[in-house]
Amino acid sequence: MTNNRYEPEFKQKVLRLYLEEGRTKKSLTEEYNLGQGTLTYWLQQYRKECDNSPTKREESDSYEVAKKLRKEIEELKKENDF
To answer: Dihedral of the CA atoms 20, 6, 54, 71 (nearest 10)?
Structure first.
């Protein structure tokens, strides 16, 4: 087993082919001579980075604020119905 190091640009290219163009893992690992778990590992790392990104946290915070506001609106509507 070899311990290859891949440039970030190369990883991004392969991930883009998989995520945006719908290529299969099998076709990409064969075409680029990647180890079987390599692409899977890159995908896991990419998803972790996306989940921890500031944008993702802001979206989560925005969702919570919107949820709280919807609840408050419902309570105010009930008060106005009396």
So the answer is: 50
Looking at domain 1-51, does it have CATH number 1.10.10?
Answer: yes
pLDDT band at 63 (very low <50, low <70, confident <90, very high): confident
Per-residue confidence band for 7, with pLDDT thresholds at 50, 70 and 90? very high
What string of H, E and C letters represents the secondary structure of the chain?
CCCCCCCHHHHHHHHHHHHCCCCCHHHHHHHCCCCCCHHHHHHHHHHHHHHCCHHHHHHHHHHHHHHHHHHHHHHHHHHHHC
